[in-house]
Design brief:
The protein has one domain: Hydantoin permease (Orthogonal Bundle), CATH 1.10.4160.10. Helices cover 66% and strands 0% of the residues. It is built from 20 helices and no strands. It is globular and about 70 Å long. It starts with a helix and ends with a helix.
Length: 498
C-alpha cells in the first residue's frame, strides 16, 4: 500500500501544553465535547464594537429603520447558518475544513480554494491587529495617556503576542479563552448600551426615509459578507473534535446562534445610534471605533477599550489558528504550531505596515480587497455544501491525503464551478470603500440590465449570493455522478475488507 500523509505518523510530538494535532484526522479517543460548546468561539469572535459601526454602514444604503433592522438580521442569520452547515463536515470527517475540501476539489485542485482562504485569513487577522492598535491609541489619547508612538507600540506588542501565543498553543486554549471572553464582553457591552442609550432618539430613527428593495438587499449582503461569509472556510476547524454521534442539528444551530445573535443585537443598536444622529453617523463612517468613544463618559473609556480590543483579538485568534491549518493544507511540512508562528510573523509585518507606514486610506483599500475575495469564498462555499449534501457516506480519510486516491488530484467539476461562479459574482459587485485597483468589478451590471455601476442594483452586492448559488447548482449538475462513483467504489472496498 502507498504511504499517504495520514498514514506516515500521527503528528509530531508537540511541546508540553501545545496542541499536537494538525491537519490529520482526529483520533476517536480525542473526540469530545458537545455541539453547545461551539456557541462560545462563534459568539466571542463576533461580540465586537465594530459590529455597532456596521449600523452606520447599513444605513449608508439609504434605507429606513425597519429595512435596516430586517436586512441586518437576515444577513447575519443566513451567513452564520452557512457556517453551521459547513461545521457538519467537521463532525463527519474530523479534519480541518480545507482538508475536507479535497473531496470535491481533489488533492491538488484544492490548492485554489486554499490560497483564497489563506489570503483572507491572514489578511483579516492583520486588519484586526491594526484596528486593535489604533483603537487603543484613540482611547488613550482621549484619556490623555498617549505619548507619541509609545502607546501604539505597547498596544501592538501586547495584542500581537496574545494572538500569536493562542494560535501556537492551539484548540483547547482558544476554546477556553473564548468562553471567558464571551462572558466578559457581554457584561461590558451591556454597560456600553446602557451608558449610550440616551443618544438614541426613536422618533428621529423612525423618520428615516425608506429606500429601495435593492438597497435593502445590498445591506443584508453587506452584513453577510462582513460576518458569516468570512468564517465559512473555518467552520469544520472547530467541530472536528466532536464525537461522530453528536447531534447534527446542534452542530448547525449553535454556531448559527452564537455567531448571529451578537451581530443582530449590536448592528441593530448601531442602526439606532447612527439613525438618531447624522453627525454620529458620519463620524462612524470615517472612524468607526474612535467615533463610538465620543459618546461615552470618560470613566468608561478604559473598559470600552478593553472590550473593543478583546473582541478584535477573539476574531484574530480564530483566524490565526485556521490560517495555520490552511498553510499546512497547502503543503507546508512543519508542525501546526510552527505554521501558526509563521502566520504570526506575516500578521505582525502587515500590521506594522498598516499602522506606521501606509497612508490613512490604506486600511480601507485593504479591506476592500479582502471583501472582494468574499466572492470566490462564497463560490467555494457553494461547492463545498453541494458536495456535503451529495455525500451519503463519511469521508474516506486516507483518500483525503493521497492524490491517487478516490478523490483524485484535480476535481474539475468543483474547480470549474468555483471559477465560473466567481467570474459571474465579480461582475455583479462594485469596488467597496472606493478601493483603488478594483474598478474592473461590476462588468455584468450593464449587460444584465441592472443599471450599470451607477444603477440602483450596483451597491446590492448581488455577486455574493449569485456566486454561492451558481457554484452550488453547478457542482450538483457536474459533480454528482462523480460522487456516486466514489461512494460505490468506497462501498465495494468496505465489503471486500469485511
Amino acid at each position: 500500500m502507498t504511504t499517504t500523509e495520514s498514514q506516515r505518523s500521527p503528528e509530531p510530538v508537540a511541546p508540553k501544553g501545545i496542541e499536537a494535532n494538525g491537519i490529520n484526522v482526529i483520533d476517536e479517543s480525542e473526540r469530545r465535547g458537545t455541539p453547545a460548546g461551539l456557541f462560545w468561539p462563534w459568539c466571542a469572535s463576533n461580540i465586537s464594537v465594530l459590529a455597532v459601526a456596521y449600523g452606520a454602514f447599513v444605513l449608508g444604503f439609504g434605507i429606513g429603520l425597519w429595512q435596516a433592522l430586517i436586512g441586518a438580521t437576515i444577513g447575519a442569520v443566513v451567513s452564520f447558518f452557512l457556517v453551521g452547515l459547513v461545521s457538519i463536515a467537521g463532525k463527519r470527517g474530523s479534519a480541518p475544513t480545507l482538508v475536507l475540501s479535497r473531496a470535491p476539489f481533489g488533492r491538488w485542485g484544492n490548492s485554489l480554494p486554499c490560497l483564497v482562504s489563506y489570503l483572507l485569513l491572514v489578511g483579516w487577522e492583520t486588519v484586526l491587529v491594526a484596528l486593535s492598535t489604533l483603537a487603543t491609541a484613540t482611547v488613550f489619547d482621549r484619556l490623555g495617556w498617549a505619548h507619541g508612538n509609545g502607546t501604539k507600540v505597547v498596544a501592538f506588542v501586547v495584542v500581537a503576542a496574545i494572538i500569536v501565543l493562542a494560535g501556537i498553543i492551539g484548540f483547547d486554549l482558544i476554546m477556553r479563552l473564548q468562553k471567558y471572553l464571551t462572558l466578559a464582553m457581554i457584561v461590558v457591552t451591556a454597560l456600553y448600551v446602557v451608558l449610550t442609550w440616551d443618544h438614541i432618539h426613536l422618533s428621529t430613527a423612525r423618520a428615516l426615509p425608506h429606500g429601495t428593495l435593492s438597497a435593502t438587499i445590498g445591506a443584508a449582503i453587506l452584513v453577510m459578507t462582513g460576518f458569516g461569509i468570512g468564517w465559512v472556510n473555518t467552520g469544520a476547524d472547530y467541530s472536528r473534535y466532536l464525537p461522530r454521534n453528536a447531534s447534527t442539528g446542534g452542530v448547525v444551530w449553535w454556531p448559527t446562534i452564537g455567531g448571529s445573535l451578537p451581530v443582530v443585537v449590536l448592528v441593530a443598536f448601531g442602526v439606532l445610534l447612527a439613525g438618531s444622529s447624522q453627525t454620529l453617523n458620519d463620524a462612524i463612517t470615517n472612524d468607526p471605533i474612535g467615533a463610538l468613544t465620543t459618546i461615552l463618559p470618560t470613566w468608561f473609556l478604559l473598559p470600552f477599550a478593553v472590550v473593543a480590543v478583546a473582541g478584535l483579538i477573539s476574531g484574530a485568534m480564530m483566524d490565526i489558528y485556521s490560517s495555520g491549518l490552511t498553510l499546512l493544507t497547502l503543503g507546508l511540512r512543519t508542525p501546526r504550531w510552527v505554521a501558526a508562528a509563521i502566520d504570526g510573523v506575516l500578521m505582525v509585518l502587515g500590521a506594522i505596515y498598516i499602522v506606521w507606514i501606509a497612508d490613512t486610506d490604506f486600511l480601507y483599500i485593504f479591506e476592500g480587497f479582502l471583501i472582494t475575495l468574499g466572492v470566490p469564498m462564497a463560490a467555494w462555499c457553494g461547492v463545498f455544501l453541494a458536495d456535503l449534501l451529495a455525500r451519503r457516506r463519511d469521508y474516506d480519510a486516507a483518500a483525503l491525503y493521497d492524490g491517487r486516491g478516490r478523490y483524485g488530484a484535480f476535481g474539475w467539476p468543483a474547480i470549474v464551478s468555483m471559477v465560473v461562479a466567481a467570474v459571474l459574482g465579480w461582475g455583479l459587485v462594485i469596488q467597496p470603500f472606493g478601493s483603488k485597483g478594483l474598478g474592473w468589478l461590476g462588468y455584468l451590471l450593464s449587460p444584465f440590465g441592472l443599471g450599470g455601476k451607477d444603477g440602483t442594483w450596483a451597491f446590492a452586492n448581488l455577486g455574493v449570493p449569485v456566486a454561492l448559488a451558481v457554484a452550488f447548482v453547478g457542482y450538483l449538475l457536474l459533480g454528482l455522478p462523480g460522487v456516486r462513483r466514489q461512494e460505490r467504489s468506497q462501498a465495494e472496498v468496505e465489503v471486500t475488507v469485511a
